[in-house]
Design goal:
single chain, alpha/beta, six-stranded parallel β-sheet, 4 helices, globular
């Protein structure tokens, strides 16, 4: 009887939707950072960051410049959290960044879009964007279709470049408690002057942000190079905008006009292994209790 119950539990849980057991894309240390560079984070002007600030591979005074509250402490930039300069926290966050980028890679290419996303309205899903002179020359609308777990993943084949004054507008995400927006950039990202952007930019090489850029509900995260800022506003909290970033990727997939689940790589396999291990333990316990399967 016990063996039958254990086996039934495994089968039922394996059949459950993956969205209900989805792991977050951004793990805690990484998710706490508004900006993470590798070689350096450099700022000019009164930039404001809502969240922690870090650099993974430079623990010296040159690691972060242009912010109060760092080793350089030279301002005028400010941030609401803590500074991490080449410490264990920053190194762990960088490892989590690599893991997050790998997870996004495993979600596949999704639908192929034009190199310039201007004037498009996209429902939740996974999309591939080719390299171009600009990837956004005007307004991009992301429509969550009323799903509070709406998610978008943009696989940038090379760079991410916006034109001056470009806008990403996220709408119809309800309370947004599980909403996720990820720009998976294979090389470098450049947000030009007065761009109003949204979501998490995960870049392999570098991120350059020009004067007067705002990044809502997201983070600037770099694995190998530098982050440069000029009089910008970066916020990982999105309560005021209605697009609240939780660090999780819990819903949305398919092409424009569709609303299918985004796959959760590895999660189901890990759950299956754990449950099968639990079932094996229960069988061993039954054997040791006098060999009576009714116990």
């Amino acid at each position: 009887m016990s063996r039958q119950i254990a086996t039934s539990c495994v089968v039922l849980l394996l059949a459950a939707p993956t969205a209900s057991i989805a792991d977050p894309i951004l793990l805690p240390q990484l998710a706490s950072l508004a900006v993470l560079g590798a070689q350096s984070v450099t700022n000019t002007g009164p930039t404001t960051l809502a969240g922690n600030l870090g650099v993974s591979n430079n623990s010296s005074v040159t690691g972060i410049t242009g912010f109060y509250g760092t080793l350089a402490n030279d301002g005028p930039g400010t941030f609401t959290g803590e500074a991490h300069q080449g410490d264990a926290f920053a190194l762990l966050a960088d490892a989590q960044l690599v893991q997050a980028m790998t997870t996004l890679d495993l979600m596949g290419p999704g639908d192929l879009l034009p190199e310039d996303l201007v004037s498009l309205t996209l429902t939740p899903g996974v999309y591939t964007v080719p390299a171009g002179i600009t990837n956004l020359s005007g307004l991009l609308t992301l429509d969550g279709l009323g799903d509070p777990n709406a998610s978008w993943v943009f696989q940038m084949l090379s760079t991410l470049i916006t034109s001056p004054g470009a806008v990403v507008n996220v709408t119809n995400v309800g309370s947004g408690s599980g909403t996720g927006l990820y720009w998976n950039v294979r090389s470098s990202a450049t947000l030009n002057t007065a761009t109003s952007f949204a979501g998490n930019i995960l870049a392999s090489t570098s991120i350059s942000v020009s004067d007067g850029v705002s990044l809502d509900c997201g983070r600037l995260l770099v694995h190998t190079g530098a982050v440069t800022l000029i009089n910008d506003t970066i916020s990982i909290g999105c309560e005021e905008s209605g697009f609240e970033e939780s660090g999780g990727l819990n819903g949305g997939g398919g092409s424009p006009g569709e609303n299918a689940p985004v796959p959760e790589p590895g999660t189901l396999g890990m759950l299956a292994s754990g449950l099968l291990g639990a079932a094996a333990w229960m069988r061993r316990r039954i054997t040791t209790v006098g060999g009576d399967p009714s116990l």
